[in-house]
Amino acid sequence: MKEEYVSRRWNRISGALAPVLTPFDGNREPDFPAFLAHCRWLLDNGAGLAIFGTNSEAASLSVDERIRLTDQLLDAGIPADKLMPGTGACSVKDAVRLTRHAVQNGAAGVLMLPPFYFKNVSEEGVFSYFAQSIDDIAEPNLAIYLYHIPQLTQVPITLALIERLLKRYPRVIAGAKDSSGDWANSKAMIENFAADGFDVFPASEVFLSEAMSIGGAGCISATVNVNPAAISGLFRALSHGRPSHETQPLQAQVDEVRRTFQSFELIPAMKSALAHFSGRQAWKIVRPPLVPLSQSAQADLLKRLASLKFEVPVEE
């Protein structure tokens, strides 16, 4: 490992992180008490907090809402070093504002989407977006995790782009979340850049054992929202080098839960499950253009979860 990265890696965030679901009230306004309770429950179950990710409906939240919710979490005592806020935006100015706020308040890092409105843009243009953001933020503690989710953005974070950004900003580019669903791509990110202090988080726990075996940093997975203790437990077992005959059953269990949820519309499905197990029916509320899970789909989801003897032990 290159010496210049060693001091930074000891306090890097790692493990199972949840792109924290955002609860809304009857007016579709963020419900902060419910948000805080969910964040505390996730922390109590070993998870980190990737607030304002895709599954947080972050694209449906304004910049002011994201900043206000972050401030409220910090004021309520949520540790800043457990936070990896999503700060990517189509506008460089919005990305800079969100990122600077996160960094100045002590977040462990930020998860940045590329600009996602213009499609098929050049790699030079994407590089320029990140370069201008970094130069404008100009914070010494800035740690950016690149967010690769090409099926939604149509703007990939390529290996060549990572290499170029690491060369220009070696102390800023901290890693990536790979939401492509392509294990070969996550594997290539780890094998090419982990030795340079670049931490890779696949976006599903189904890749956790494989990723950890070659130097991955954990996962940032939607279903950490509903299964944090099991996924965090698997991460700890893998981190401690537990033998495969112990970790394989844990991996199989979390895989089955993941497959069940992702066979439905993922965000409404997780919110429906939380509504059912917590008794807080407002958990079902999503912001347009999303719609809640239908009653028949919810019944099917709960039936399938019951067959797994799975429930969400929420205390809200």
Radius of gyration: 19 Å
Oligomeric state of the chains in view: single chain
The named CATH superfamily: Aldolase class I
Model regions low in confidence, pLDDT < 50 over at least 5 residues: 1-10
Write down the overall mean pLDDT.
95
Summarize this structure as a short list of keywords or feature phrases.
316 residues; alpha/beta; TIM Barrel; four-stranded parallel sheet; three-stranded parallel sheet; 13 helices; 7 strands; disordered N terminus
Question: What does this protein structure show overall?
Answer:
Residues 1-10 have low confidence and may be disordered. This protein has helices at 3-9, 32-44, 63-75, 92-104, 123-137, 150-153, 159-168, 183-193, 208-213, 228-239, 244-262, 266-278, 295-307, and strands spanning 15-18, 48-49, 110-112, 144-148, 173-178, 199-202, 218-220. It has a four-stranded parallel sheet with strand order 3-4-5-6. The protein has a three-stranded parallel sheet with strand order 2-1-7. The chain has a single domain, classed as TIM Barrel (Alpha-Beta Barrel), CATH 3.20.20. The relative contact order is 0.13. The protein is 47% helix and 9% strand. It has 316 residues and is an alpha/beta fold.
Write a short abstract of this structure:
This protein is an alpha/beta fold and 316 residues long.
Write the layout of secondary structure elements.
Layout: H1 3-9, E1 15-18, H2 32-44, E2 48-49, H3 63-75, H4 92-104, E3 110-112, H5 123-137, E4 144-148, H6 150-153, H7 159-168, E5 173-178, H8 183-193, E6 199-202, H9 208-213, E7 218-220, H10 228-239, H11 244-262, H12 266-278, H13 295-307
Parallel strand pairs: 1-2, 1-7, 3-4, 4-5, 5-6
